[in-house]
Amino acid sequence: MLCRKQLGLLALGFAFMHVLYTMVIPLRYSVRHTLISQVINERKANKTTPFDFDNTEAWGTDSFYVLGILGFCLYVLLGITSLPSVGAALSWREFSFVQSKLGHLTLLLCTAHGFLYGWNKFLRSSTYKWYTPPGYMLCLVLPSVVLLLKLLLITPCVDHTVTRIRQGWERGRAGG
Ligand code: HEM
Asked: Candidates 22, 63, 67: which one to mutate for ligand 1, based on the most atoms within 8 Å of Cβ?
């Protein structure tokens, strides 16, 4: 629990690297080569499939990018507020709103980004090379468990009891 901040900053560093590497994807020789040869092959075979506009695919990829970008922006905000000088300028309510509420929202956005990346890939057997789950699936396990537990905690019956326990209530104590 004591190294939560360090772990969060480490993850932010990885997210930065992920964003930078993502920007470079279209510039890579192998990616440009694959795209161009795909079009040329389709042209040679007299097919027009790559030019058909797939609405579902368009919505899926756009939402995937939007969630990633929003998640990343909030993540940076979390990183900035964790700086001692910035944190000191905020009231406790502001700090806990950013770190707790926005923190969970960031987790939700980034997890949704990962789920949209999976889209329908998980249905294809080619995804499971050597019969093992791909990296993105493993990445989704922990955040999904955290979000499910958070969902459980904010249900009114559990939330009410937890709030009372925080306020000092004990089962069976007189006046409780
Ligand atoms: C500006 C923000 C972001 C952009 C533009 C972006 C873009 C992308 C792209 C293009 C991919 C697919 C890569 C591929 O085809 O191999 C991807 C995958 C992924 N992204 Fe992001 N992303 C962003 C932020 C984030 C953040 C903040 C997180 C989590 C902290 C995240 C987690 C992931 C994960 C887990 C995958 C799956 C990686 C894999 O298994 O290959 N992304 N993202």
From this structure: 22
pTM: 0.87
**CA geometry: angle at 7 spanning 3 and 11, to 5°?**
170
The answer to whether position 43 is within a domain reads no
Domain that holds residue 112: 10-26+57-166
Q: How many domains does the chain have?
A: 1
| Residue 2: pLDDT band with limits 50, 70, 90 | confident
Identify whether the C-beta of residue 66 lies closer than 8 Å to the C-beta of residue 110. no
Q: Is residue 3 part of a domain?
A: no
21 CB under 6 A from ligand 1?
no
| Cα-only R_g, the chain | 22
69-102 per-position pLDDT tens digit: 999 999 999 999 999 999 999 999 999 999 999 9
